Amino acid sequence: MATLSFNPTRIPHKPISKTASFSKPSEITFHFSPKSSNKHVKPLHFQSNIITKLPVSTQEEVEIENEDYEEDDPTAEMIYLDPETDPDSIVEWELDFCSRPILDDRRKKIWELVVCDDSLSLQFTKYFPNNVINSITLKDAIVSISEDLGVPLPERIRFFRSQMQTIITKACKEIGIKPIPSKRCISLLLWLEERYETVYTRHPGFQKGATPLLALDNPFPMELPDNLFGEKWAFVQLPFSAVREEIASLETRFVFGASLDLDLLGIEIDDKTLIPGLAVASSRAEPLAAWMNGLEVCAIEADTSRACLILSVGIATRYVYATYMKTPVTTAEAEAWEAAKKACGGLHFLAIQDDLDSDDCVGFWLLLDLPPPPV
């Protein structure tokens, strides 16, 4: 059994955690299935690189949809609201405002505003020249979306680019919207990946090989704040059926944490498939979970070169969440955990408990480690 712990300088006696043994990873199939659009707007079809295999019948359907999509004008803009959705129910948007690998008539990069909600019931895109990029333009565009679609302004807007934080924050606050810097913009990130393949590359001004103007930050991990320290941790696995139960408990038992829209993602996983996760135990589990709940937890990574776990939160914050004694055994365990996460398409979880032997969680976060978008 490996000796694993949080930063040992914070713990008088280094605990021995229970590390689950990992079975051989099995590839997981993901089908992204957003809500269907009306006849004027073709339904989105995500083509994420975390899709591993599609049944033959589904592949044929995808090819047919893609053939239809080829007829669309890549210079066209989109404004869509699912007619079956109650506009008042959309209280949170996901937003990206950034340049694209497309040049206009002046040979300058075009910027684009892309907005959706987490269920893709709301979809909006609009191109802008690079000489009007400011908070006023963005504020006016947000108000215009609300007015044109007949939806109220959202309570919150999530965004994932740190370089745009000043502009987005200012625009949101001027119209009473709470800006949330977070990489938990799963629907938006997948939509951008889909748009790169089906829209941007077909645009007459597309510049192949162009470097993204605002690349995502991946800063060096910092020391974990005192209030986020736990006492013990362990690599664990849960059957997918148990993961679903924990997700359901977020509402029924008012547990701290966050979920993902598994129906939207169309994740096809057998109930018995083991999902990798990290269990954290603390005698102050409830306040610890409460603090974690305000951090926009995005992903956990096992860094075998530094013999530590990295916690990613917000849009550009990374913490050394835990450390362990580097040995061949612990390295193999960390590598197996990462392999299991990769086999699940990046799906993993964080559970906070009073004790590692407890059957209940005080906090549960379902996480999806996605690569950065190509734009």
UniProtKB/TrEMBL annotation:
<protein>
    <submittedName>
        <fullName>Uncharacterized protein</fullName>
    </submittedName>
</protein>
<feature type="domain" description="RNA-binding protein Tab2/Atab2 C-terminal">
    <location>
        <begin position="213"/>
        <end position="367"/>
    </location>
</feature>
<feature type="domain" description="RNA-binding protein Tab2-like N-terminal">
    <location>
        <begin position="93"/>
        <end position="195"/>
    </location>
</feature>
<dbReference type="GO" id="GO:0003723">
    <property type="term" value="F:RNA binding"/>
</dbReference>
<dbReference type="InterPro" id="IPR046760">
    <property type="entry name" value="Tab2-like_N"/>
</dbReference>
<dbReference type="InterPro" id="IPR046761">
    <property type="entry name" value="Tab2-like_C"/>
</dbReference>
<dbReference type="InterPro" id="IPR009472">
    <property type="entry name" value="Tab2-like"/>
</dbReference>
<dbReference type="Pfam" id="PF20429">
    <property type="entry name" value="Tab2-like_C"/>
</dbReference>
<dbReference type="Pfam" id="PF06485">
    <property type="entry name" value="Tab2-like_N"/>
</dbReference>
